[in-house]
Structures are given as C-alpha cells and as structure tokens.
Design a protein that fits this description.
Two copies of one chain form a homodimer. By secondary structure, chain A is mostly helical. The first copy, chain A, folds into two domains: about 80 residues, Multidrug-efflux Transporter Regulator, Chain: A, Domain 2 (Orthogonal Bundle), CATH 1.10.1660.10; about 40 residues. Chain A is built from five helices and two strands, in the order H-H-E-E-H-H-H. In chain A, strand 1 and strand 2 form a beta hairpin. The longest helix of chain A has about 40 residues. Chain A is flat, with a radius of gyration of 19 Å. Chains A and B meet through helix 3 and helix 5 of A and helix 3 and helix 5 of B. Chain A binds a DNA duplex through helix 2.
DNA sequence: GTAGAAGCTAACATTGATGTCAAGTTCAAG
DNA sequence: CTTGAACTTGACATCAATGTTAGCTTCTAC
C-alpha cells in the first residue's frame, strides 16, 4: 500500500511514516516513479513502533530491537546481542517504573475527579 | 529547606525545581537575602509533580490540578471545576491507553530478552 | 492528454522540560 | 572579615519526534 493508506490505517501522519523509514524502522519498496510501497505487514509494525515510542525508547534503539522481534508472519530474523540485551533490561526496568508512576498519577486523577463529582452530588 | 537539599532529597535538579516554582507548581518563602525556603511538604509534592509529568500532563494542567489534590497534611483546598474535571477525565483515558501501550512494549522487550537468553542457554 | 489527488524531497519551526554557563549575591564557619 | 559553598537571575542550547510549507513529480481516471 502507499503512504496515504498506511497513514489512514494506523492513525500516524505521513510525516512520521517517512521519518520512520528514514530511521530504518520501516522498509518500503519503491514504484518506478519513486513512490513508497509498504507491505501489508507495515500496519502492525507501525503500531508497535508507536508503542515503543510511547514507552520512551528512541528510534535508534527501536531500530536495533525490531529485527529481534518475532513478527506476525514468522520468527525473529535476529537474536539480540548481549550488549543489546543489557540495554533492553535497563529499558524494561525504566518501563516498570514508568508504569508505577502512571498508576499513581491515575489514582491522583481519580481522587480529584471523584471528590468533585461527590461534591456536586 | 533550601533548594540544594530539596534537589538532593528528590533527585530532581535545581534547575527543574526553579522551573516548577516559576510555573506555579511549587511555592517557596524567601529568606531576607532572597533565597528560596521550601516547606518540608515540598518533598512529597515534587515527587508527585514528577509522576504527573511522567504521565504526560503539562505544567499548566498540573498547576490547576495541584490545589485539588489532598495533601499529606489535610484535605484538598479546592474542588475541581466541571471544566477541569472534563479535562482530567480525558487525561485519565489517555493514561489508561498509555499503560496499555507500556505493558505491550514491556512484553515485546521480554520476548526479545528471553529469546536471547534462551538462545545462549 | 489532462486535471486533480496523492506522493516526493528539503528545509525550517515547534514544543517543553531540562542542561549549562556566566556574573553576581548570600550564607555559614573560621 | 574572609573564604568557599550554596544560591540568584538570565540567557542560550538541546533533544527528538512531529508540524508545516514550498516546489515539483507521479499516479489515476476520465
């Protein structure tokens, strides 16, 4: 599919998709005229890329990580190096702390929202 | 306490603490010489501010939110307006989506880490 | 072949919290 | 009083993903 459809189907801007390709996170064929042709599988991949961005990973690390993920259509095409594994373990710890913080913040918002709705009966 | 101690005890840089005060997130007395004097309670508050930042709230929204939180030492000093409540509900939904994404990403990292460690037995 | 939608590259802007540096002031202890 | 640590304000820099614009090209359908 071309970039417009991918953008529509993932909710990610064309600008970002081009950026992802530039960073090596997406691979696209090119038509003779030079337009990008993404595989169907790109939809899932974009969604996972977004999740990893949301988790605070930088594009460089995501680029290293992606080949080691098992895709919908098969096993991973690479195994993480020990160095990468160490990085990922650190990221995982960071994500765990982040989740804790998010849960706490969610609780704070809950309190404030509940206090207000209770105040107004 | 002065800013250095607060920075040490919260792990937040002095730069950020000054920024928080400027944004109305922290209130500090001043010594006759003009130095900030933070109350003991600022430690908890800074930690909660950091959590809210981590949750993706902007300083402006946090500033609105803070007076409505119940502090360690008492009830809330304000009740959220309906407008603010609507905002907070939206933020809460965003946080929920964010947690979901984080959990997914954590799973991806787990897979890659496990695949590597298993590969090396 | 032509019109309009969709795509391309490239460059510049934005955002928002935080880092950093400079030049000067205050504080605490001898 | 003096010295050094701690503090002040202000300005400028950074980061990384994304927005925006401009000028040009390709594709699709008639």
């Amino acid at each position: 599919m071309r970039i417009g459809e991918l953008a529509r189907r993932t909710g990610v801007s064309e600008r970002s998709l081009r950026y992802y390709e530039q960073q090596g996170l997406l691979v696209a064929e090119r038509t003779p005229g030079g337009q990008r042709e993404f595989p169907e599988q790109a939809v899932d991949r974009v969604i996972r890329i977004q999740e990893l961005f949301a988790a605070g990973l930088h594009s460089k690390k995501i680029a290293q990580l992606l080949p080691c993920m098992r895709d919908a259509d098969g096993g991973p095409s690479a195994i993480a190096t020990p160095r990468l594994v160490a990085d990922l373990v650190a990221e995982r710890e960071r994500i765990d702390r982040m989740i804790t913080e998010l849960v706490n913040s969610r609780g704070v918002l809950d309190d404030v929202i509940n206090a207000a709705s209770q105040d107004r009966g």
